[in-house]
Amino acid sequence: MNTSIVGRHITLTEDLKKHIEGTIDTFKKYNLDIISVNAIISQEQKHGKNLITFEYLLNVAHQDTIVVKQKDKDLHTAIDIATDRVNKILRRHSDKIKNHDATKLTDVAIAEEEDSVSKELEKLDNEIVPMRLDSYKPIEIGEALNDLKQDGGAFKVFYDMDDNFRVLYKMKDGTHYGLY
Length: 180
Fold this sequence. Notes:
CATH class of the largest domain: Alpha Beta
Helix content: 25-40%
Strand order of the largest sheet: 1-2-3-4
Number of domains: 2
């Protein structure tokens, strides 16, 4: 994290720099990727009164630049108020990142659907019995038709002479057959 402290129309003492660096160190506790922090102190004369402006410029990765300005008569008060405001902004951003991994409603709906499908399949486990093909050798379509007529079944699964997986089935009218 790059830090810079700039004074405009004001002299910066070592104690003041240490105080500002100490407040900047509090920003690290949020574990955000803070690229740079600029602290700018300026003094203005308005209506015969000295007015101190303290400004933080924070560059955070994957977010817009955070700018916080605080004007006050006392320099330390302006620094403390601006630091509190920046801490509030960083805390909210950190909380938003942490809470972003919450479960989405679509994920909940998908999980419920998968549960219902698995329960239905468990019910059907007793009714559905896996079977193997009688023969893996290719047979003629006419031979498969004769086998289907002799068995009296509704369909026959087989490999034809071109090694294509085929299904021969009896149509609803009972006299015609379909080939898939």
